């Protein structure tokens, strides 16, 4: 592994710690959640999804049209329960879900599509998605087993929202799941009516292969886990093992403390983004200085500016995961 690669890994480890802690700020309270498993049979079913614990209901109360179908059994085992069934719309150009909501609440609305060769044709369809009367997005697929998710953030002015699938002549529209999550009204504040998702970088799913919330024993949150390690002065077990201990300890301490400050329950104790960037740059500078002094001096790294390394790490490592 060359030095530049080591740096990227080091930085990525720091960013992972930081984002893992920032992304999962609080535990999950499902009040106000609407989780609809489209096409799920029997029609009145209600269940808790086995990996997330989220409570899904069948889509029957929300739509009159379409047919219920099941994806191929061979794909089901590794996927979340809510994609096992789909509702497909072989008839009609436009088919809509109508979901009752609370006026004035900011919602995240997410539609999930996973083909799973439910129709046995092994042909990926393409169709349009509308939010009410507005075009939302075109749904396309790269793979039979990779889900496609579309999200908008919306504050309804009426007591219901409509999500519509439009047949554009390139295959039968279908949908796997529809989820609505009430957001704090301070989340994603915008002067515009709705926001559509451009990209979600799920960079906090795991840390050292450990999920944010351990489901094996009692539900230990990663923040509690990191806190217990820090209390014992055990920084090594928090850092990416592939680094094999080859990092600036002070720098890592600083980064982890920064991450912990970011998840403080008291908002005034949380640093601003520019403070975070400044601190991370300091951490990186300390690491670069250490490298500089070690036998591993590599001019290509020494001449890199911190900004450049940061931007390399951001652009090369922080790609979204399918989940
Ligand atoms: C669903 O409907 C069936 C038959 O109508 C009924 O026997 C069953 O109890 C219902 N289940 C739930 C969870 O409501
Ligand atoms: C939505 O609200 C309308 C009017 O209040 C009501 O008639 C309907 O049953 C509700 N639908 C669902 C699925 O709760
Ligand atoms: C958010 O909601 C609270 C209480 O409902 C209200 O006092 C506050 O002004 C709202 N803030 C925004 C940014 O809409
Ligand atoms: C690394 O060392 C070189 C020369 O030894 C020096 O000019 C440079 O400023 C050092 N860089 C850092 C970040 O300490």
How would you describe what is shown here?
The protein has 323 residues and is of the alpha+beta class. It folds into 2 domains: 137 residues, no CATH class; 163 residues, Galactose-binding domain-like (Jelly Rolls), CATH 2.60.120.260. The protein has 7 helices and 16 strands. Strands 2-3-1-13-7-10-14 form a 7-stranded mixed beta sheet, with no helix packed on it. It has a 4-stranded antiparallel beta sheet with strand order 6-11-8-9, with no helix packed on it. A hairpin with a 6-residue loop joins strand 2 and strand 3. Helix 1 packs parallel to helix 4, helix 1 packs across helix 7 and helix 4 runs antiparallel to helix 5. It is elongated and about 70 Å long. The C terminus is likely disordered. The structure holds 2-acetamido-2-deoxy-beta-D-glucopyranose (4 copies). One 2-acetamido-2-deoxy-beta-D-glucopyranose binds next to loops.
Question: The CATH topology of the largest domain is what?
Answer: Jelly Rolls
Ligand list: 2-acetamido-2-deoxy-beta-D-glucopyranose
Sheet/helix structural class = alpha+beta
Tell me the strand order in the biggest sheet.
2-3-1-13-7-10-14
- CATH architecture annotation name of the largest domain: Sandwich
SS strand fraction: 15-25%
- Share of helix, binned: 25-40%
CATH class of the largest domain: Mainly Beta
Measured between the Cα atoms of the first and last residue, the distance is 29 Å
Give the count of helical stretches: 7
- What is the typical, i.e. mean, pLDDT? 78
Biggest sheet descriptor: 7 strands, mixed
Q: Gyration radius, to the nearest Å?
A: 23 Å
Count up the domains. Answer: 2
CATH superfamily membership of the largest domain, which one? Galactose-binding domain-like
Write down the secondary-structure element order.
HEEEEHEEEEEEEEEEEEHHHHH
Query: Outline, from the CA principal axes?
Result: elongated
What is the number of strand segments? 16
The poorly predicted ranges are: 19-27, 201-205, 295-323
